[in-house]
């Protein structure tokens, strides 16, 4: 006789229902219990854990496919990226064609490449520190030139060398985010 009991009060007057949740565009049905003795409710017996973790795995796999499609649309060469990052040949193609699934660290790498595309260039330059600094500065300069960003360089009066850069990034009319040289030390 293994009748389920409320983990809070030990009561057996439980009602089981189902709740629909959406995770990453996929709808899943989760179990919910209500104890009519004490009023507590929830997943008392951890029945939803497997469904939730599976939904998050699927969400991350879907995101990785979207990132691979974006890389392809940007005319990024999968073989070149794999070579630069020392990834086995045709790995990206296998992921894209769903022949294999990327691991959690691989999905994290794809997300980094999506957000910071210059990382491939740094890897292509064998992670040389000077080359990496130059690549990052070049990317930052190109970013500054985009509409909505106003950049100013301030000069030291004596040497006319640039000593500080400030950026105004406008996302909506009337809102500005200001970064100055004092804040750079925090990054």
Residue-averaged pLDDT:
82
Major beta sheet, strand line-up = 1-2-3
Strand fraction equals: 15-25%
- What is the total tally of β strands? 6
Q: Judging from the principal axes of the Cα atoms, what is the shape?
A: elongated
Number of helices: 7
Low-confidence stretches: 160-164, 176-187
SSE order in H/E notation?
Answer: EEEHHHHHHEEEH
Assembly level? single chain
* Helix/strand/pairing category: alpha+beta
Radius of gyration: 26 Å
* Largest sheet report: 3 strands, antiparallel
What is the terminal separation in angstroms? 61 Å
Which helices and strands, and how do they pair?
Blueprint: E1 14-23, E2 26-35, E3 41-42, H1 49-73, H2 78-84, H3 91-96, H4 104-115, H5 118-124, H6 129-144, E4 149-155, E5 162-169, E6 177-179, H7 181-184
Antiparallel strand pairs: 1-2, 2-3, 4-5, 5-6
Helix pairs in contact: 1-4, 2-5, 5-6
